[in-house]
Amino acid sequence: MSTTAEQPNTKKLFYKIGEVSELTQVPTYVLRFWESEFKFLKPGKGPGRRRTYVDRDIETVRAIKRLLYDEGYTLEGVRKKWGRKVKAERNVAAIKELPEDVLAHVRAELSDVLKILDSYGGSSQKKRRTTSSGSGRSAAR
User: Fold this and answer.
1) Whole-number pLDDT of residue 127
2) What angle do CA 9, 18, 79 make, to 5 degrees?
3) Model confidence over 73-85: pLDDT tens digits?
4) Burial of 130: CB neighbours in 10 Å, binned 0-12, 13-18, 19+
5) Engineered SS bond to 43: which of 7, 53, 86, 108, CB 3.0-4.6 Å?
């Protein structure tokens, strides 16, 4: 009989703490400790208040293990790194989800700025076209 650890391709929706321990090679008492230390590791609770881990939780456990054991982070260091990671992911998601009307407004504002700049020198448009043509050199060279 083969175990879940031997069959990584076997997909389940939920895993018990013992199965996660086998998959990640992290003792169950360490998993419970990490749950108390890291707010971002919160497996669900099933009937009888048993922990039910999903694939995302298992990847989180593997990431914590790598940071602590392989990269030498402290518990506090893992918390800080994870916080920065989550913040960066939120920023990227927010940028990707900008409504088209906001982008159109920003483009219009930038166009107005370019018009103002052109009215002062008149040659900035010529330099900008030359620079953006790919040579990377301005018209003055």
Assistant:
1) 53
2) 90
3) 999 999 988 888 8
4) middle
5) 53
Domain 4-96 has CATH 1.10.1660.10: yes
What is the model's pLDDT at position 13?
87
What per-residue confidence (pLDDT) applies to 98?
A: 65
The b/e string for 58-82 (b: 16+ C-beta within 10 A; e otherwise) is bebbebbbebbeeeebeeeebeeeb
Closest CA to 31 of 55, 58, 49: 58
Give residue 7's identity as a one-letter amino acid code: Q
Sorted by where each begins, the domain ranges of the chain are: 4-96, 100-135
Contacts of 41 (CB under 8 A, 6+ apart): 34, 35, 57, 60, 61, 64
